[in-house]
Amino acid sequence: xxxxxxxxxxxxxxxxxxxxxxxxxxxxxxxxxxxxxxxxxxxxxxxxxxxxxxxxxxxxxxxxxxxxxxxxxxxxxxxxxxxxxxxxxxxxxxxxxxxxxxxxxxxxxxxxxxxxxxxxxxxxxxxxxxxxxxxxxxxxxxxxxxxxxxxxxxxxxxxxxxxxxxxxxxxxxxxxxxxxxxxxxxxxxxxxxxxxxxxxxxx
Length: 203
Ligand SMILES: [Zn+2]
Ligand SMILES: [Zn+2]
Prior knowledge:
Blueprint: H1 3-8, H2 12-18, H3 24-39, E1 50-53, H4 64-72, E2 81-83, E3 90-94, E4 101-105, H5 107-113, H6 117-123, H7 133-145, H8 148-151, E5 152-156, E6 171-173, E7 180-182, E8 187-189, E9 192-194, H9 196-199
Parallel strand pairs: 1-2
Antiparallel strand pairs: 1-3, 3-4, 4-5, 6-7, 8-9
Bound molecules: zinc ion (2 copies).
One zinc ion binds at residues 18, 20, 22, 24-25, 63, 128.
């Protein structure tokens, strides 16, 4: 395996975690690798790096986001990843005291990618796990073989601001259901604490 291929290929466990083999998870992984390098930071151990993905839902390229999480450690569970629901194949990577950087997939690249047989299957409604492995590998390997600037546009975003929420362990017991609810989400009704669903409030 060449150094280039090693750098940009997600580890086998990444495909297990993701559930199937597809071309978009590896493209997200590579985006994450590039973003860490550009910011000059390493894989996030705790809660600092933040990624704002511009993807939406109901389009299969959202697999990108699993790759981004795997490469960067900025995971949904650590609340380090959020989505704008703009339906765009782009993400901005933010780290304190660094210039944020946005990566997007080039339309020309996507157009060329769409010619691969993999997408003939996808357009017939066949899920990635049902597509012959050789067909999937063909498009993945084509992507890996390309230089970064054939796939991504990278742009610094000094205008991008993000304010991490203040962490707090304070909580209350909901008067309605008796379950624990963290302070930020406690809603007061007749002077008593409630969780959001029990309060009847929308948020
Ligand atoms: Zn996928
Ligand atoms: Zn409740």
